[in-house]
Design a protein that fits this description.
Blueprint (H helix, E strand, L loop, with lengths): L20 H8 L3 E5 L2 E4 L1 H20 L3 E2 L5 E3 H7 L1 H4 L5 E4 L5 E4 L4 H11 L8 E10 L14 E11 L2 H21 L4 E5 L9 E8 L5 E6 L17 H11 L4 E3 L5 H5 L6 E16 L3 H4 L2 E3 L5 E3 L1 E7 L1 H11 L1 E2 L2 E2 L10 E5 L5 H16 L4 E4 L5 H11 L3 E5 L1 H4 L3 E6 L5 E5 H9 L1
Parallel strand pairs: 3-7, 19-20, 19-21
Antiparallel strand pairs: 1-2, 4-6, 5-6, 7-8, 8-16, 9-10, 10-13, 11-12, 11-13, 13-16, 14-15, 17-18, 21-22, 22-23
The structure holds '5'-O-(N-(L-prolyl)-sulfamoyl)adenosine (P5A).
'5'-O-(N-(L-prolyl)-sulfamoyl)adenosine (P5A) binds next to strand 8, strand 13, strand 16 and helix 10.
Length: about 450
């Protein structure tokens, strides 16, 4: 992508409304724009990161055996009247009437709709277990949307819903998602800690929040510091192995971890003082087992091997991609801007042509741009006529992992400079050697 043809509206000033660093950096680097309170557009730079986050989430959902579909944002109130949540959900639900005066709502979550889909098609235990997910916008009329897309009113959610014949089966489905979440957050460059959590309006009695430790987090959390060293399930993990899933779950729930709502002061104080971690955290995922809470009022039953009808046991599993993007920034930035983990970076590298219009600089930059592009890399080429200092500052701000700096002095020797955004390490190499290093 040539920067001269891209749309990357960088702000020079620090936006006053941004209280935390991720919000400030997302606005400054032109990733998002607030359209109404708590409602955001994702501009091209932000969209690229969001797509990469979603891709990793999808890959790990698919790996665990979940199946993707897409449900609408607007839902009929009838389904929610059936489950009993239409009145219970309160003011966070945005209620709308269509032209026929039919009550509709902008979905804050999809337990009812997926249960309706399930009961319409699945009649036998032979089609179980089943886990269906989608990545779709939600709306919650939060009283205090804040921190940009971290707590917004309209936000993206990956929500998965599992269906099993028995409670034991449902618990295995829960542990599969638990393991898939550990892999997902780790691939996003984050260490998320599963903590016993309150179930709120979703319901049920088994629930974990996945929390990233960050000073700007909204939740107060308490845990054992052993979490920092636990192993992440490997790529070839067998998600169908009941014993395997159980052992991952057992390890990750073997030591104390709780959010403030579930905090047990005495249990926490029983941990050796040096092993206690009391911190703030960002909730990036939340999983629930709630048995027959929805299948019962909505009549979602299957025929079991005994020939009788059984209510299905369900769970639901959420991740917030539009919250994860700022959470990653909170965990990875410095005073100059964002430092993207390679897995979600909007571009693999940025070529900084320090003197656009200079024949040698242009030729070398074009060659690098073509070669990296041909090798399948996503490259941003800063071909604008901005001053070199402006270009360096912009490259640091947007946080692309590798900067390839093409300047008139070094190119006279056939050389360019590579800068690692994370470490700041610089290396001068011939164009050829730089290409070899980047393409491998
Ligand atoms: C689980 C999936 C649910 O809604 N139903 C379907 C269950 N869970 S939850 O905890 O309420 O939300 C799941 C995740 O969505 C993100 N999230 C938000 N992101 C940005 N702004 C918000 N206002 C917001 N609310 C929830 C979080 O990542 C949460 O873990």
């Amino acid at each position: 992508m040539r920067l001269s043809r891209f749309f990357m509206p960088i702000l020079k000033e620090n936006p006053k409304e941004a209280e935390i660093v991720s919000h400030r950096l997302m606005l400054r680097s032109g990733m998002v724009r607030q359209q109404s309170q708590g409602i955001y557009s994702w501009l091209p730079m932000g969209k690229r990161v969001l797509d990469k986050v979603n891709k990793i989430i999808r890959e790990e959902q698919n790996r665990s055996g979940a199946i993707e579909l897409l449900m609408p944002t607007l839902q009929s109130a009838e389904l929610w009247q059936e489950s009993g949540r239409y009145d219970a959900y309160g003011k966070e639900m945005l209620r709308i009437k269509d032209r026929q005066e039919r009550p509709m709502l902008y979905g804050p979550t999809n337990e009812e709709m997926i249960t309706d889909i399930f009961r319409s098609y699945v009649k036998s235990y032979k089609n179980l277990p089943l886990n269906l997910y989608h990545i779709q916008l939600k709306f919650r009329d939060e009283i205090r949307p804040r921190f940009g897309t971290m707590r917004s009113r309209e936000f993206l959610m990956k929500d998965a819903y599992s269906f099993d014949l028995t409670k034991e089966g449902a618990e295995h489905s829960y542990r599969k998602m638990f393991a898939a979440y550990l892999r997902t957050f780790s691939r996003l460059g984050l260490r998320a800690i599963p903590m016993r959590a309150d179930t709120g309006p979703i319901g049920g009695n088994l629930s974990h929040e996945f929390i990233i430790l960050a000073d700007t987090g909204e939740s107060e959390v308490f845990c054992h510091k052993d979490f920092v060293d636990f192993d992440i399930p490997a790529e070839n993990t067998d998600f169908d192995s009941v014993a395997g899933m159980q052992s991952i779950f057992d390890q990750w729930t073997s030591v104390y971890a709780a959010t403030s709502e579930m905090h047990d002061e005495a249990a926490f104080n029983a941990i050796a003082e040096g092993d206690r971690l009391s911190a703030r955290g960002i909730e990036v995922g939340h999983i629930f087992y709630f048995g027959t809470k929805y299948s019962e009022p909505m009549g979602a039953k299957v025929q079991g091997p005994d020939g009788k009808e059984h209510l299905v046991h369900m769970g639901s599993y959420g991740i917030g991609p539009t919250r994860l993007v700022p959470a990653i920034i909170e965990a990875s930035h410095d005073e100059n801007g964002i430092i993207w983990p390679a897995s979600v970076a909007p571009f693999d590298s940025v070529i900084i042509n320090m003197k656009a219009g200079d024949e040698a600089c242009d030729a070398a930059s074009e060659r690098l741009y073509a070669a990296l592009g041909n090798a399948g890399q996503d490259v941003l080429y800063d071909d604008t006529d901005d001053r070199a200092g402006t270009k360096f500052a912009a490259a640091d701000l947007i946080g692309v992992p590798v900067q390839v700096i093409v300047g008139p002095r070094s190119i006279a020797n056939g050389e360019v400079e590579l800068k690692d955004r994370k470490t700041g390490a610089r290396e001068t190499l011939t164009v050829e050697a730089a290409l070899n290093k980047l393409i491998g």
